[in-house]
Design brief:
This protein is mainly alpha-helical. It has 6 helices and no strands. The chain has a domain of 77 residues. Helix 4 packs antiparallel against helix 5.
């Protein structure tokens, strides 16, 4: 059975528009709860980079396991190829360089997201 369009199920165009708006809001709510924005991931990378810098200042040979796991999770969410570049090396200089690459990509994503503009306009009366 083929799915029906909203216009075929409801004859009142105001009802159709109200349902389209409700659907758009529900999708936005779902996305905002289940997906971190590039800005949120950029903030997380700043915190991780701060931990790595503390390791450098204290002349620690490796980054803490918890921080390394968070870096790996962030890399997978941004670019799995960077996770491969990170490998198993935990020295602060290497982890810091990879985090700088992630931040460059995330800054570009934040800039792209801001440039998208406004949401599309939902027509009140769809063309017949």
């Amino acid at each position: 059975m083929a799915p029906m369009s909203l216009g075929a199920a409801y004859s009142n165009p105001y009802e159709v528009t109200a349902l389209q708006i409700a659907t758009a809001r529900a999708q936005l709510t779902f996305r905002s709860r289940h997906r971190r924005s590039p800005q949120q991931r950029l903030e997380a990378s700043d915190q991780l980079l701060e931990h790595v810098e503390h390791c450098r200042l204290q002349s620690l040979p490796t980054v803490a396991d918890e921080v390394f796991e968070q870096v790996a999770a962030l890399l997978i969410s941004v670019d799995p190829g960077l996770r491969l570049a990170l490998g198993g090396r935990r020295d602060p200089n290497h982890v810091g360089e990879i985090l700088f690459q992630v931040q460059r990509r995330l800054m570009q994503a934040v800039q792209d997201e801001r440039g998208r503009g406004l949401a599309p306009v939902i027509p009140l009366f769809p063309p017949s």
